[in-house]
From TrEMBL:
Keywords on record: Membrane, Transmembrane, Transmembrane helix
Protein name listed in UniProt: Protein RER1
Organism: Acanthoscelides obtectus (Bean weevil)
InterPro entries, sorted: Rer1 (IPR004932)
UniProt main location, coarse: membrane
Amino acid sequence: MEDELLGSGSKKNGFSQFCTRVSQIHQSMLDKWTPYALPRWCFAGFLIICFALRVILLQGWYIITYALGIYHLNLFIAFLTPKIDPAMDFDAEDNGPELPTRANEEFRPFIRRLPEFKFWYSVTKSTIIGLICTFFDCFNIPVFWPILVLYFFTLLCITMKRQIRHMIKYRYLPFTHGKPKYQGHEEATGKVIVSPK
C-alpha cells in the first residue's frame, strides 16, 4: 500500500517537475526575445498576413477573423491607454484631475495599461490560435461577411474617436517619437549633468 502511494507521489512529482521545466524554458525564450522589438513585431505581422491570406484564399472563417480583429482592437486600446486614468485620478482637495499643468511641476512619464511586450505576446498568441482554428471546418460558420466588416469598422471609428478625445482632453501622447530624451554628461569635476538631446 505504501509502495503504491509512493509510486503515485513520484509520478505527480515527476509531472510537476516536467511542467516547471517547460515553464522555465518558455520564460527563458521570452526573456531572450524581449529586447528585439522590431523583429518581434515583424514576426507578428508575418503571422497576421499568413492568417489573412488563408482566410482570403479559402473564403471562410469570417467569424474567427471578426473575433480576432475585435480582440486586437481591444489590445490596441489598452496599449494606448495610461495605466492610471486621469479621468479617475481625483485630488481630494478640489475634486479635479491632478495633472501637471506648468513646466515647474513634477514630470509624470506615460505608463501604459498594457505594456508593449505583453501587447505583442497577446497579438502573437491570438493570431496563432486563430490560424489553428482555420484548419477546422467546425469554426467555418457561414455568415454574410460584409456586415461583419462594416460593423468592425464602425466599432473601430467610434472607439478610436473616444480614445483620441481622451488623449486631447488630458494632453498625453502614448508614443515616444518627438519627446526629449535625456542623457548624462560628465564635467571636469566628475559631476553628472543631465541635459536634453
